[in-house]
Write a structure and sequence with these properties.
This protein has 14 helices and 16 strands. It is α/β, with parallel strands linked by helices. Bound molecules: NADP nicotinamide-adenine-dinucleotide phosphate and magnesium ion. NADP nicotinamide-adenine-dinucleotide phosphate binds at residues 74-77, 96, 286-287, 303, 306-311, 324-325, 372.
């Protein structure tokens, strides 16, 4: 069989631990036998990030902007324990944070639904897509510990030297401070990414924040969404029978639980971080959540929403069998391959990606699955496979489909 040719490379961002192991299995078993894979490779494994003073992360994000499509493996975000474990020069920042800051744009996360994995919330019959704003707020904040009494103020110095001041607090004791920001152009592109994605996937859009408490910061988000919706998208939404509405974040949480799914829930950066983990778990498994960062100028970075599955990796290193779910990482690859095919007019590549997705879902629905799904699947006939066994079972289905 001839392998499917590619014209433009995909930016490949390799990562850490168990997901790095799975990354190679997926390429060797599910992609390279069928596709003449062209990638520009960046090793975002923690050791190499440390060796390059994290330059490799920045370079990979610029490459994603150059080529338009990237696929990323999960990576370690170092904490004190990791600094010791890897003997790091510095506690490097989260690669995802660095990449998001460079590409800007919005992260869309949606669960992969399969028969036998029933959401904990019985009325969720359709996927809920979370749109997470990918810039600023607490992820780009400056923090301070104050040791004792004193006055904290917010000071803005305009270019002409004019100062605007707001009292934060007159401290009578030790405490903590945080200064954070966002940018109107970033909020505007967030809004447009959400409206465009809603139109292209024909789903309603919800947006929520805490504007009753945050009367300037969160309220600006609300106003920008409202203005852009009315000016640029209202007519198109009405034509397609779609709705956009704004509500308070606490009201949104209550409505989401009562809903049947099938819409996009736009969230500020932190809300999106937290709520996407909650939704992934409630839909069945963290390992079944896909994630794509869409930049306002139309660049895409695909990844799994879960981490590097550290506990499984230590078992793997001891030579013990593992049953780690590769599905979200497979879907990161298929998302990137399908998008590359779409942009290059390479229909064979896009079709291959769809076949790989279907073969993956068919494998689980036939009763073959990894341990995380085995625990929660309601199928009567089911079998727990090891990591590589499961990938080989998908390959068998894929070979039949090709
Ligand atoms: P994690 O890797 O997401 O795993 C947490 C737990 O969820 C696992 O121990 C496992 O449960 C289960 N799980 C997650 N993915 C799974 C899969 N594919 N198959 C089966 N089970 C799965 O989070 P973590 O252990 O808290 O973090 C590990 C590292 O990942 C950290 O260094 C963190 O910085 C990094 N991280 C990276 C990203 C990213 O790059 N996007 C995102 C989050 C975290 P059991 O152990 O009970 O089986
Ligand atoms: Mg998170």
């Amino acid at each position: 069989m001839d392998r499917i040719p590619m014209t433009t490379p995909i930016v490949e961002m390799d990562g850490d631990e168990m997901t790095r192991v799975i990354w190679k299995f997926i390429k060797d078993e599910l992609i390279c036998p069928f596709v003449d894979l062209k990638t520009e490779y960046y090793d975002l494994g923690l050791k190499h990030r440390d060796e390059t003073d994290d330059k490799v992360t920045v370079d990979s994000a610029h490459a994603a902007q150059k080529y338009g499509v990237a696929v990323k493996c999960a990576t370690i975000t170092p904490n004190a324990a990791r600094v010791e474990e890897y003997n790091l020069k510095e506690m490097w920042k989260s690669p995802n944070g660095t990449i998001r800051a460079i590409m800007d744009g919005t992260v869309f996360r949606a669960p992969i639904l399969v028969k036998g994995i029933e959401p904990y919330v019985k009325n969720w019959v359709k996927p809920i897509t979370i749109a997470r704003h990918a810039y600023g707020d607490v992820y780009k904040a400056t923090e301070m510990k104050v040791e004792g009494p004193g006055r904290a103020e917010l000071v803005f110095t305009a270019e002409d030297g004019t100062e605007t001041r707001e009292l934060i607090h007159d401290f009578k004791s030790a405490g903590v401070l945080q200064g954070m920001h966002n940018l109107n152009p970033s909020i505007e592109s967030f809004a447009r990414c959400c409206f465009n994605y809603a139109i292209s996937t024909k789903q309603d859009l919800w947006f929520a924040s805490k504007d009753t408490i945050s009367k300037k910061y969160d309220h600006t988000f609300k106003d920008i969404f409202e203005e852009i919706y009315n000016k640029e998208y209202k007519a198109k939404f009405e034509e397609l029978g779609l709705t956009y509405f704004y509500t308070l974040i606490d009201d949104a949480v209550a409505r989401v639980i009562r809903s049947e799914g099938g819409y996009i829930w736009a969230c500020k950066n932190y809300d999106g971080d937290v709520m996407s983990d909650m939704l992934a778990t409630a839909f069945g498994s963290l390992a079944m959540m896909t994630s794509v960062l869409v930049s306002p100028d139309g660049n895409f970075e695909y990844e799994a929403a879960h981490g590097t599955v550290q506990r499984h990796y230590y078992k793997y290193l001891e030579g013990k069998p593992t049953s780690t779910n590769p599905i979200a990482t497979i879907f990161a690859w298929t998302g990137a391959l399908a998008k590359r095919g779409e942009l290059d007019g390479n229909a064979a590549l896009t079709e291959f990606a769809k076949k790989l997705e279907k073969s993956t879902i068919d494998t689980v629905e036939s009763g073959k699955m990894t341990g995380d799904l085995y625990l929660i699947s309601t199928l009567e006939k089911k079998e727990k496979l090891e990591t590589l066994e499961f990938i080989k079972a998908i390959r068998e289905n894929l070979e039949k489909a090709m």
